[in-house]
TrEMBL record:
GO biological process: regulation of DNA-templated transcription
One Pfam family cited in the UniProt record for this chain: Response_reg
SMART domains for the chain: REC, Trans_reg_C
OmpR/PhoB-type domain mapped to chain residues: 136-239
Transmembrane keyword on record: no
Signal peptide region: none
PROSITE patterns with a match to the protein in the record: OMPR_PHOB, RESPONSE_REGULATORY
This protein's name: Chemotaxis protein CheY
Regions recorded as binding DNA: 136-239
GO cellular component, one term: cytosol
Length: 256
């Protein structure tokens, strides 16, 4: 699947078992130029995705056939570039973290208005277009190469499998290696400049991105950049040392 990330005509899959909510979401999206397909079960949505390319999934966590977290995990395993936004009535932080850990890119807590959903969608789609076009085509940091035009990341020629938001985060940090980047700036650049609510989604995505980079460092060693947590501020991508033994090899992923 190769996303176009346009502002209209974007194919969206809605997974919502409530008929009133599902129909309302479908009508709201179609009235704003999206191509919306609505399903009441996760398995029906999965079957649709396997035959019809899609770019966005709006996923309710409380489904009749399976838990939305499990569906998110299956979808992410098969469609790494798909934008997944959870729609949930669960307000506990542990539930939100579970969904993000499963592969969701964002979440909206019910009840929400169609206006808020549409604004969040526009922000995500705009972010992909802006991030890909505003920066150099590629960035090389030691063994790591980030290619914006194809949205691919390689370590010594071997491609890393990153989620869409993980790629955006890595690109944002790689734009300013060895420079502190605040949480607020990362949220604005990767998610939405008007983001409100918890920024836990940033921590979850950073944690998974860090684990992927650490696994790749098993072969690349000290030639891999690492992500450092700056308590009370944000994060920094430390470029690998140009010479010398350095201290990156064998480093364990930092806690959030």
């Amino acid at each position: 699947m190769s996303p176009t990330w346009g502002s209209s005509g974007v194919p969206v899959v809605i997974v919502e078992d409530d008929a009133v909510i599902g129909r309302h979401l479908q009508q709201a999206l179609e009235s704003h130029g999206y191509h919306a397909s609505w399903f009441r079960t996760g398995q029906r949505a999965l079957e649709h995705l396997r035959t019809c390319p899609c770019e966005v999934m709006l996923l309710d966590l409380g489904l009749p056939d399976s838990d939305g977290v499990d569906i998110a995990r299956q979808v992410r395993a098969e469609f790494s570039d798909l934008l997944i936004i959870m729609l949930t009535a669960r307000t506990a932080e542990i539930d939100v973290i579970a969904g993000l850990d499963a592969g969701a890119d964002d979440y909206l807590t019910k009840p929400f208005t169609a206006t808020v959903l549409l604004a969040r969608l526009r922000a995500h789609l705009r972010r992909h277009t802006t991030n890909d076009n505003a920066q150099p085509a590629s960035t090389v940091l030691g063994a790591l190469t980030l290619e914006r035009s194809s949205r691919r990341v390689f370590v010594d020629g071997h491609e890393l499998r990153l989620r869409a938001k993980e790629f955006d985060l890595l690109a944002a940090l790689a734009d300013q290696p060895d420079t502190a980047v605040s949480r607020e700036k990362l949220m604005a650049q990767v998610w939405d400049e008007n983001w409100y609510g918890s920024t836990k989604t940033l921590d979850v995505h950073i944690a998974h991105l860090r684990s992927v980079l650490f696994a790749a460092a098993a072969n690349a060693g000290e030639r891999m950049p690492t992500i450092t947590t700056l308590r009370g501020h944000g994060y920094r991508l430390d470029a690998p040392p140009r010479t010398g033994s350095g201290d990156h090899q064998g480093r364990q992923p930092e806690p959030q």
